[in-house]
Amino acid sequence: MEVREMRCFLRVAETLSFKRAAEILNVSHSVTTKTIAQLEHKIGTPLFTRSTRRVALTPAGVLLQRETAELIRNLDRIQRAVRHETGAASGRFGIGVTPLAMQTLFPPLMRKFRVQHPNLEITVEEISTEAQVKGLLSALIDVALVIAPVSEPELEVEILGEQQMRLAIPTCHPHFKPESGQKVPLCAFATDTFLVSGRAQNGVHEEINRACETAGFRPKIKECNESQTCLALVEAGLGVAFVTDETEVAARPGLKLVNLEEPVPSLTLAMVWRRDDPSTALQTIRKLIAEIT
Fold first, then answer.
1. How many CB atoms lie within 10 A of CB 179?
2. What is the pLDDT of residues 27-52, one digit of tens each?
3. Are 230 and 155 in contact (CB under 8 A)?
4. Are 138 and 76 in contact (CB under 8 A)?
């Protein structure tokens, strides 16, 4: 068995969903299905029972989950220990950032951090929350600014704050009022298309669905390649979009920000790190983020 196959198997076993496991692993559904099929062929017995309604572990699957989980945990621990050592020796420090954190906390945090660690080689990756969690667990990055929730026993999570979203609409929209600061109920946009960036941070789609369903309708969501593409389509009158960075909208005269009545969709920003990381740079960044927030 290959480590890649064991990790894939464990994700499917934990979630009992091939689709959800594929999302966490950041691979396609077909790759996950093929990997499990190959593993079952190597072992010579089914590991899951599948139906149109549910996925369940077979007795062989239960045994394999119990045996491989500890093996993978030990492998990850060894990888982290080696990378801690090499990272400290080389003077490197990796930071993962979601787009929301990049727009808000990250710039002032880095200005202060560079003063205290001027010789540290800092690498920054603007990636999704799930990719950051994978990076932390494998010690490819050292700290992550993510969209909560995150629940991994090896990771420590500190909630930093909540960012409410506002709705960007075109000036040709029926609810556009040039001078009005009046709040509008979310249900007023039930017939609109909600444009969301395909690179949107983890939790955005879920939060939009939750807020709209609370308001009494199921939203029609369409993905764009980038957030700027979404705003251009909104300006063209092809939909509406939730935003957290108001400066993006201010630069487009054909857009208007609308304040919404409660419940307003919001995103929770958090900092995450490995529980067993002894890095002094990590301690510095935790102290600085406390000062900023």
1. 5
2. 888 999 999 999 999 999 999 998 87
3. no
4. yes
DSSP helix/strand/coil, 119: coil
Full set of structural domains in the chain with CATH: 3-79 (1.10.10.10), 91-161+268-292 (3.40.190.10), 166-264 (3.40.190.10)
pLDDT in tens, 203-253: 677 788 888 888 899 999 888 877 788 889 999 999 999 887 666 676 788
**Tally of CB atoms within 10 A around 204:** 22
> Residues 204-211: contacts with CB within 8 Å, 24+ apart?
204/147, 204/242, 204/267, 207/165, 207/265, 207/266, 207/267, 208/242, 208/265, 210/265, 211/186, 211/263, 211/264, 211/265
Which whole number is the average pLDDT over 65-84? 79
For the record, the structure tokens of 169 come out as 């609409």
Structure tokens given for 256: 């208007």
Which residue is it, tokens 């599948």? 50
